Amino acid sequence: MLKEWLAHPLTRGLDLNDPQTTHLRRSIVQEKKFLRRLYCEWYQRIAAALPPGAGPVLELGAGAGFLKEYVPGLIGSEVFWCPDIDIVLDARHLPFGDATLRAIVMTDVLHHIPDARGFFAEATRCIRPGGRVVLIEPWVTRWSHLIYTHLHHEPFDPQAKDWSFPSEGPLSGANGALPWMLFARDVEQFKREFPQWQLTRVQAFMPFRYLVSGGVSMRDLMPGWSFKWWRAAENLLQPWMKSWAMFAEIVLEKSNPGAKGNQG
Predict the structure, then answer these.
(1) Is residue 96 within 8 Å of residue 81, measured between CB atoms?
(2) Is 243 inside any structural domain?
(3) How far is CA 197 from the centre of its chain?
(4) DSSP calls for 201-249
(5) Residue 264 lies in a domain
(6) Which residue among 68, 194, 236, 262 is least packed, with the fewest CB closer than 10 Å?
(7) Residues 20, 27, 92, 187: is their CA dihedral positive or negative?
(8) pTM exceeds 0.85, yes or no
(9) How many domains would you assign to the chain?
(10) CATH of the domain at 61
(11) How many other β-carbons are positioned within 10 Å of the β-carbon of residue 217?
(12) pLDDT tens-place string over residues 147-170
């Protein structure tokens, strides 16, 4: 009953795999002042983490967002057609040449890719040496486990044995714990399977603001003017993010075999 009451009236009951749902969520992100400021902060993080130099940057799952305002020339992609994207693609089969991309970025997308190994194999092929994968993703802590298990609509299984899951649909299939599995629980296995990638940053953050914003699927729980106060409260909790964070910024850099001391 609580989930039903909290559900945003524009998207309540809609099929997550319907492109119209993604289009509506784009409108929700723009209209909810608290949520839009939160996305602005995420996008600033992503833009700051991009490697220097020229070259194309690909965003996966761009349909509901506005990262192009922060990354000029960004290639916005989705798994289905919707307004303001540049290309429809499958993250496991990228239509780009070898070593042609400067970076791949995504916000809340990796945990929807049913074959993480397939994606990272393609990222390894398409991203040039020195290029990066930059992610904002859900993270596993005591607090987030409680919230994602009881208040969120997506599957969340930190105990899953494999990095893959059944593909029920492009958006309904998910495991919100997947990023934590790859880059915390199974990080040594990831390094063995993908030695070309250096994990340069895992920063856990944001225990409350996304929750009280209502996200893209719930009502506003806090007014936009309260954003700075919630941010200040979260800053005070920074030493305890291992227990409280709901998200993490994750940055991986592809090794440059020709660079001294950077052999992967």
Answers:
(1) no
(2) yes
(3) 18
(4) EEEEE-SSHHHHHTTTTB---S-GGGHHHHHHHHHHTGGGHHHH-SEEE
(5) no
(6) 236
(7) negative
(8) yes
(9) 1
(10) 3.40.50.150
(11) 20
(12) 999 888 789 999 999 999 987 777
